[in-house]
Amino acid sequence: MDIQWLFLILAIVVLVFGVGVVVANRRKMGSGQRTELPPRPAPSAPSTTTEEPEGDTLVEEPPVVEPEPEPEPVKPLSLRDRLSKARASFSGAFGSILGRGAITDETWDDLEEALLRADVGLGVADGLLEPLKERVKAKEITEPSDLLAALQADMIARLADADREVHFDESLEPGQPNVWLFVGVNGVGKTTTIGKVARQQTEAGRTLLLAAGDTFRAAAAEQLGTWAERSNTEFVRGTEGGDPSSVIFDGIERAASKQIDLVLADTAGRLHTKTNLMEELKKVRRVAEKGAGTVTETLLVIDATTGQNGLAQARQFSEATNVTGVVLTKLDGSAKGGIVFAVETELGIPVKLVGVGEQVNDLIPFDPDEFVNALFDTGTDG
Ligand SMILES: Nc1nc2c(ncn2[C@@H]2O[C@H](COP(=O)(O)OP(=O)(O)OP(=O)(O)O)[C@@H](O)[C@H]2O)c(=O)[nH]1
């Protein structure tokens, strides 16, 4: 064989062997890489893509998002929760009465004290307890628990039969707005109450205008303006120290021209001039009735924390103007919820709405059953 041919055959053998070794090494390396891959992120990792070699392509996995834990539902406070201070006036007395096991002289002292502390007034306290004493004397009631149940029922009965509707006259023509006047001394929560009513009435589908007839304090008008913005209602205000009646008159005229359903009118609780407040309120009412509107409610706003003082105010206001209902505010912070009984029994004015907090939904229709039951429900207070 020619030496050249020998070299050529040798070179081919070496080449074939070399390629075989390289391919075998590559295979080996390929399988080694796979085992050295970093571990896959756990499903809960926030990363949204996972790279995993599969041949030469990168596979995108859908993001693994763990569901957010359900937020604990916020339980709205019940009337019972809001009345914790008022209930405290009763719970101590009820505890001692039930603890004694029999109806004694102390039972009557405890009950009278609890009722007076809650500010129902002496007349109402006597009116509630005297008939019960007769029933105990006649052995119709013998157990302390039955006595408390009878008192609870009598308190509910005393508040029954009142017309608690806030009146809106649907029969008035467009251009003849209903007018609700809000009266009461400063700081009782008039402006806040108007804001809450505005929101509720707007949600009920009525169109509204708020008239800032309290011209004593510029801040009061500004506060009302903010409520008007929040509930997207029309708003009329006057100059500071201006005539409250004219602001309300202008408001009613504007509402009439725009065919607005309802005007909520804030009034002064104090005046710049020496004019008597009550005379001013009479004038407000006269002027409000002069134009296109009809006053269908005059709501007296009373701060429940003032107890019997509130009663004195109610008497004065009702003598000056035809008060058709009471709004009792701040019942949530008051131990003197008994004022409800004093106002209704002594003045015959129904409590129509109660304020139980500062938020827009914290104004609710007054429900005697719910109210009295909340006062007596001392079960879990300890
Ligand atoms: N806790 C509680 N606070 C209330 C309630 N109603 C009103 N308030 C608060 O009482 C304060 C006085 O309320 P306003 O609405 O400004 O009282 P006002 O009668 O208009 O007083 P002036 O603006 O001074 O005429 C504010 O801080 C209100 O948030 C209620 O039902 N519960």
UniProtKB/TrEMBL annotation:
Residues 350-363 form the SRP54-type proteins GTP-binding domain. SUPFAM superfamilies: Domain of the SRP/SRP receptor G-proteins (SSF47364), P-loop containing nucleoside triphosphate hydrolases (SSF52540). This is Signal recognition particle receptor FtsY. It comes from Ilumatobacter fluminis. The lineage of its organism: Bacteria, Bacillati, Actinomycetota, Acidimicrobiia, Acidimicrobiales. Its EC number is 3.6.5.4. HAMAP family: FtsY (MF_00920). One of its GO terms (biological process) is SRP-dependent cotranslational protein targeting to membrane. The chain crosses the membrane at residues 6-24. It is an enzyme of class 3 (hydrolase). Residues 30-79 are annotated as: Disordered.
